[in-house]
Amino acid sequence: MDLPFDVVDLPAPDPPAEGEVAPDFERPLVGTEYWEDAALSELTAEGPVALVFYTMDGAFPATYIWNEIRDRGWGQEVAPEVTVVGLSISSPYEHKDLIAEREMDYRLFSDPANGVAESYGIVHDLDGMAGVAEPRPAVFVLDEERVVQYAWAASEWPEFPDYDAVEATLEAL
Amino acid sequence: MSESAITLYRLQACPFCERVVRALDEHGLEYRSRYIEPMHSERTVVKRLTGKRTVPAIVDESTGVTMSESGNIVEYLDRTYGDGGEGS
């Protein structure tokens, strides 16, 4: 974004780097009709995965990010062999609403206690929301062994993924 | 997404669903939970499976049985997996 003032810098993240194995986790995975516990490793066992961490579902970056991914058709027209999944601290009920409102064909992990962001080194303590932390926006592209092919985590608040760079990685898989 | 043969469609805090969970546990059965939303209009998946919009509903792939209503399900589990049952 081009703003006439300095945006807030976030402390340096410590995410898994390219070539490292991304931490596995199991959380409720929400689709259009139901949710059930699923492990990241179950998804990667079936093919590459793009794991998108984003803000809680009501915040505007959630809308922007999922509109962009939906319009670009990741995992559908673009790189159909890739499973694109999201993760935020929102509850499964909120995820169902977001999926319906965005008319998006992507499933979302629910992690209210933010443990996955902790294991990925991308925790963002929200100023002015006491006791609430969420993942900072981040994107990890993983191969079938959960090895990181592409990693990005926000260093400013807010900051959005470099969609073209992610898409180039997806198309090169 | 476990490999369990039995899938339980349930609502959070639904006592009829918990009754079925208790019966599954009593018989030591593995099952996967799929949660749906309370609004009847959002219960498409169980309507498609059972013809009704009520939960709990189970799908047991090892017997090919799909059914709803907790009393029926508990009776089915007892009959199939209880002492002397065909699946025990």
Name the features.
heterodimer, A: 173 residues, alpha+beta, 5 helices, B: 88 residues, 3 helices, 4 strands, globular
What are the SSEs and their pairings?
The complex is a heterodimer of chains A (173) and B (88).
Chain A: E1 8-9, E2 26-30, E3 35-39, H1 40-44, E4 49-53, H2 60-72, E5 83-88, H3 92-102, E6 107-110, H4 115-119, E7 123-125, E8 133-135, E9 138-142, E10 148-153, E11 156-157, H5 163-172
Parallel strand pairs in A: 4-5, 5-6
Antiparallel strand pairs in A: 1-11, 2-3, 2-6, 4-9, 7-8, 9-10
Chain B: E1 6-10, H1 15-26, E2 31-35, H2 44-50, E3 57-60, E4 65-68, H3 70-81
Parallel strand pairs in B: 1-2
Antiparallel strand pairs in B: 1-3, 3-4
Helix pairs in contact in B: 1-3
Structural features, described:
The complex is a heterodimer of chains A (173) and B (88). Chain A has 173 residues and is of the alpha+beta class. Chain A contains five helices and eleven strands, in the order βββαβαβαβαβββββα. In chain A, the strands form three sheets. Chain A has a seven-stranded mixed beta sheet. In chain A, strands 1-11 form a two-stranded antiparallel ribbon. A two-stranded antiparallel ribbon of chain A has the order 7-8. The two termini of chain A are 29 Å apart. Chain B has 88 residues and is an alpha+beta fold. Helix content of chain B is 35%, strand content 20%. A four-stranded mixed beta sheet of chain B has the order 2-1-3-4, sandwiched between helices. Chain B is globular, with a radius of gyration of 12 Å. Chain B starts with 5 loop residues before the first strand and ends in a 7-residue tail after the last helix. In chain B, 26% of the residues are buried. Chain A binds chain B through residues 28-29, 33-39, 42, 92-93, 96, and chain B through 1-2, 9, 32-37, 42, 44-45.
